[in-house]
């Protein structure tokens, strides 16, 4: 991500190469081009994408299961006198 690239350069600089966030951003874009701030994006995406897909799929399946259980339990509770 762009902010990660800039912050990484600031933390790992030797000496006083950058004066701050905007100085680092400007120097990076001037010397390496705009897309240099997105270095590491594809490996990050490859790492996070499977996790995100699994998490969303699991959440969807869990919600379906909860709805099924609620449909079975709630009508039975109405006849039991619970309100």
Question: If you had to describe this structure to a student in words, what would you say it looks like?
Answer:
The chain is mainly alpha-helical and 83 residues long. The chain has two domains: 39 residues, no CATH class; 37 residues. 75% of the residues lie in helices and 0% in strands. It is built from three helices and no strands. Helix 1 crosses helix 2. The longest helix has 39 residues. The chain starts with a helix and ends with a helix. Keywords: Membrane, Mitochondrion, Mitochondrion inner membrane, Repeat, Transmembrane, Transmembrane helix, Transport.
Put the structure in a nutshell:
It is a multi-pass membrane protein. This protein has 83 residues and is mainly α.
Any chance you could write out the topology, listing elements then pairs?
Layout: H1 2-12, H2 21-32, H3 41-79
Membrane topology: Multi-pass membrane protein
Pfam family, one: Mito_carr
Family: Belongs to the mitochondrial carrier (TC 2.A.29) family.
Order of helices and strands: HHH
Secondary-structure-based class equals mainly alpha
The biggest beta sheet reads: none
How many individual domains? 2
User: In which range does the helix fraction lie?
Assistant: over 70%
Task: Name the poorly predicted regions.
Answer: none
The average pLDDT value, as a whole number, equals: 88
- What percentage of the residues does DSSP assign to strands (E)? under 5%
Shape designation: rod-shaped
Total count of helical runs of at least 4 residues: 3
Rg from alpha-carbon coordinates: 25 Å
Measured between the Cα atoms of the first and last residue, the distance is 51 Å
Q: How many β-strand runs? A: 0
């Amino acid at each position: 991500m762009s902010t990660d690239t800039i912050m990484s350069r600031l933390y790992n600089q030797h000496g006083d190469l950058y004066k701050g966030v905007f100085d680092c951003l400007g120097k990076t874009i001037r010397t390496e081009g705009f897309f240099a701030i997105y270095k590491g994006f594809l490996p990050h995406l490859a790492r996070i994408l499977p996790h995100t897909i699994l998490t969303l799929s699991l959440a969807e399946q869990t919600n379906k299961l909860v709805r099924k259980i609620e449909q079975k339990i709630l009508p039975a509770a109405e006849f039991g006198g619970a309100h």
